[in-house]
Amino acid sequence: MKSLFVGNLSFQTTQSELTELFKAFGEVTRVQVATDRETGRARGFAFVEMPNDEEAAKAITGLDGKLFGGRNLKVNEARPRAERAPARHGSGAGSRQGKFSNEDYREATRQPREPRW
């Protein structure tokens, strides 16, 4: 089972169009077009799964750089997703973490102020 990354897609590209495009090279198990969570609009890339490695290799060589939907496709083998760092809660814009507070200055020696006249 090979998972292929398909990049530089037109935002109007559908799953059925990609399925038909890749079926010319062999059996297609699954097509997943990446969409934005908030808007539901396509993000311009997709993943295509093909069960046969030879057919997947033919699809890569046959479609990489090919004009589709007015754009040159970028097709290669999908890499596994890298481990993400855990989310850091409390470090956003409203957080006081990393900011100075009065506690930082309590121990410091006070400098005399000059009069303001």
N-to-C SSE string, H for helix and E for strand: EHEEHEEEH
Shape-level CATH architecture of one domain = 2-Layer Sandwich
- Helicity range of the residues? 10-25%
Q: Quick one: how many beta strands?
A: 6
Instruction: Enter the CATH topology name of one domain.
Output: Alpha-Beta Plaits
**CA-based shape:** elongated
* CATH class category label of one domain: Alpha Beta
Can you summarize this structure?
Helices cover 21% and strands 25% of the residues. It has helices at residues 15-23, 53-63, 103-106; strands at residues 2-7, 30-35, 42-50, 67-68, 71-72, 74-77.
Short descriptors:
25% strand; 117 residues; four-stranded antiparallel β-sheet; elongated; alpha+beta; Alpha-Beta Plaits
Structure description:
The chain has 117 residues and is an alpha+beta fold. The chain has a domain of 76 residues: Alpha-Beta Plaits (2-Layer Sandwich). The protein has three helices and six strands. The strands form two sheets. The chain has a four-stranded antiparallel beta sheet, with helices on one face. Strands 4-5 form a two-stranded antiparallel ribbon. The termini are far apart. The mean pLDDT is 85.
